[in-house]
């Protein structure tokens, strides 16, 4: 794994609670797609609960997060399968002048589910997009796989 403090992929914080997915580094270097995974941790804190979950994110999961951000930009709720059965859902609470995210994390096989209502202020979706950009700049895909030509199989 790369050394360093890591970079936030998701960082939603208000005075009482936070939900963060922090990328810690590349899982291992190499030239196959299975070596291009990122180690991460999901950290949730609130006045009621706190927890931490280790994650390993594939390039496909990172691409799914980029797509999911487009849905959030349209103020739609999203579901993002992070790893295995672990899922992060973000609903939009429109009862306030500035829409607030309600983040639910389902821990899959553990059966643990945590729901946190946040008030990160205006522009939080744009901040998530910037955070994704920083992660991709820090750990660009090392493995590029191109589709094989039609002639390859003949």
Q: Can you walk through the features of this model?
A:
With 154 residues, this protein is an alpha+beta fold. Helices cover 19% and strands 38% of the residues. The strands form two sheets. It has a four-stranded antiparallel beta sheet with strand order 1-2-3-4. A four-stranded antiparallel beta sheet has the order 5-6-7-8. Helix 1 packs antiparallel against helix 2. The protein is globular. The N and C termini lie far apart (40 Å). The model has no long low-confidence stretch (mean pLDDT 85).
User: SSE order in H/E notation?
Assistant: EEEEHEEEEH
Mean pLDDT: 85
The low-pLDDT segments are none
> What share of the residues lie within helices?
10-25%
Computed CA radius of gyration, to the nearest angstrom: 17 Å
Counting DSSP E segments of at least 2 residues, the number of strands comes to 8
Distance between the termini: 40 Å
Q: Indicate the multimeric state.
A: single chain
Give a short account of the largest sheet.
4 strands, antiparallel
- Tally the helices: what do you get? 2
Strand order of the largest sheet: 1-2-3-4
Shape: globular
Task: Give the topology.
Blueprint: E1 7-13, E2 18-26, E3 38-45, E4 50-57, H1 59-73, E5 78-83, E6 86-93, E7 100-107, E8 113-117, H2 124-138
Antiparallel strand pairs: 1-2, 2-3, 3-4, 5-6, 6-7, 7-8
Helix pairs in contact: 1-2
Keywords:
alpha+beta; 154 residues; globular; four-stranded antiparallel beta sheet
Give a quick summary of the entry.
The protein has two helices and eight strands, in the order ββββαββββα.
